[in-house]
Design a protein that fits this description.
By secondary structure, the chain is of the alpha/beta class. It contains 16 helices and 14 strands. The termini are far apart.
Length: 459
């Protein structure tokens, strides 16, 4: 009996895996990544690992995390249920766990359910799998790993597995580990759908078809990510276009500047604040300051707003009405004399384009040093497939607050009359147009007056 036959006798579910998947499953490292193309079978190997580990270790706990509860149902459950029907039909499956006959459990959650994830504190984990790692909001991913998961794995020296497809933004923890090797101790694995014997032929046809349809080459960023599993920045997928970072020509002062403050309310996510300002006589706006903080109370947010009001004397404060109830908004007004209008949120995609135009034309400029987090978000946020808003899971708290402020700013900037410089030819044209206009007006005023007709005979 060869080694594979011996392995399949001990771990029969692994007979479902091809060589690259099997190498990932058998890695002796505690910290493992899989960077794959689409349709490479990365979620399938996770289902196999979860089942095999838990049916051989009684009374153990494993954890699978995906981006949302919906992605758990759509992506993870199909291969999981297929394997369970073959290798452990007695297991009981619910929306958030799989209970095995030997007392082991697989806990399942979307990262959008932070209340549930917080409940995992105190348990001992045999392993944790984090799927779609490139698409997680980075502060959430780091929080999950550093504040919750690592400690849960410590007792049993369990494994942490990060898997995913490269994202267009080429940033974040998953990128740092799999591409830049900035963290030591990780065993990095890579494969594509061409390594998957169940998909190789179809995938090869689709890859060629993609190049033909798009009239492009294999250097195309989307082709590299989806078909080759490589990190590649894609400016078309990025929501925000290139922007300028610079200080205002004249420093901010209350007398000659006008400002708008915006808030994007959050709790597990950050509550983000953004201030946009412009001089009264100049239709050029600056993002003067952005910052954010998690788990702020009503009084904590109020203290930040009181400071900002004193510093900037804003014309208006706006906030995301979905992020704070009417009762809380009323409390700001009654208790702190802070009046917050509802931010405009409709037609987000259209206003993103207006926002981009302002950035490209230097009509909106980011101040250095005070907008660092906003700059990071603007370089990383990508469109969803419908180009209607950001991709689900993308961090954009500072960007949303800034967009709210920008939309209010437009109302005031449009009222400023801009006197553009003119050359001599244009000045002559305007002079002659004014002469003709005045002469025509004079003729109309004297229409019907016979005095000029009477004196014409003497001329």
């Amino acid at each position: 009996m060869n080694e594979l036959e011996q392995l399949y006798k001990i771990a029969p579910v692994y007979s479902e895996l091809f060589d690259k998947q099997l190498a990932f499953a058998l890695s002796p490292s505690r910290f493992i990544t899989a960077l794959c193309s689409s349709r490479a079978g990365k979620t399938k190997v996770c289902a196999a690992i979860a089942i095999q580990e838990l049916i051989t270790r009684p009374n153990s706990l494993g954890l699978y995390l995906a981006l949302t509860d919906k992605s758990v149902a759509d992506i993870f459950f199909p291969p999981l249920k297929e394997f369970l029907s073959k290798y452990c039909p007695e297991a009981k499956v619910t929306a958030d766990e799989v209970a095995f006959p030997n007392g082991s459990k697989l806990l399942i959650a979307g990262a959008n359910n932070m209340a549930k994830i917080e409940s995992f504190r105190g348990i001992k984990l045999l392993f944790c799998i984090i799927d779609e790692a490139a698409s997680f909001r980075q502060h959430i991913l780091k929080y999950l790993i550093d504040e919750i998961i690592i400690q849960r794995l410590s007792d049993l020296q369990g494994k942490l597995m990060l898997i995913g497809t490269p994202a267009a933004h080429c940033m974040g923890l998953f990128y740092d580990i799999t591409e830049l090797n900035l963290e030591e101790g990780w065993d990095n694995h890579r494969w594509t759908a061409l390594d998957n014997p169940h998909m190789a032929e179809q995938w090869n046809k689709d890859a060629k078809l993609f190049l033909q349809r798009k009239k492009t080459t294999e250097a195309n960023p989307k082709y590299r990510r989806e078909f080759k599993g490589q990190w590649a920045t894609d400016e078309e997928a990025l929501m925000i276009k290139p922007f300028t970072v610079n200080n205002p020509i004249t420093p901010f002062n209350i007398e000659s500047w006008r400002t708008v403050i915006a808030i994007d309310f959050g709790f597990n996510d950050q509550t983000a604040f953004s201030v946009i300002g412009w001089r009264k006589d100049m239709p050029k706006a600056y993002v003067l300051e952005t910052f954010g903080e998690s788990k702020l109370s009503v009084s904590g947010i109020a203290q930040h707003l009181i400071r900002l009001k004193q510093k900037y004397k804003p014309m208006k404060i706006v906030g995301d009405p979905a992020g704070a109830s009417k009762i809380i908004i009323a409390e700001y007004a009654e208790k702190y004399h802070i009046y917050i209008d509802a931010a405009q949120k409709s037609n987000k995609a259209d206003y993103i384009e207006i926002f981009n135009d302002a950035l490209l034309n230097d009509e909106l400029i980011l101040c250095p040093n005070t907008t660092n987090e906003l700059q990071k978000e603007m370089k990383a946020v990508v469109w969803n497939e419908g180009h209607t808003r950001e991709l689900e899971g993308t961090k954009c708290d500072h960007l949303d607050a800034t967009l709210y402020a920008f939309r209010e700013t437009l109302e005031y900037l449009e009222k400023i009359v801009v006197l553009k410089p003119i050359d001599d030819a244009e000045r002559e044209r305007q002079f002659m147009a004014q002469v003709i206009k005045e002469d025509k007006k004079r003729q109309e005023n004297h229409k019907g007056d016979t005095f000029f007709d009477d004196i014409s005979s003497f001329l």
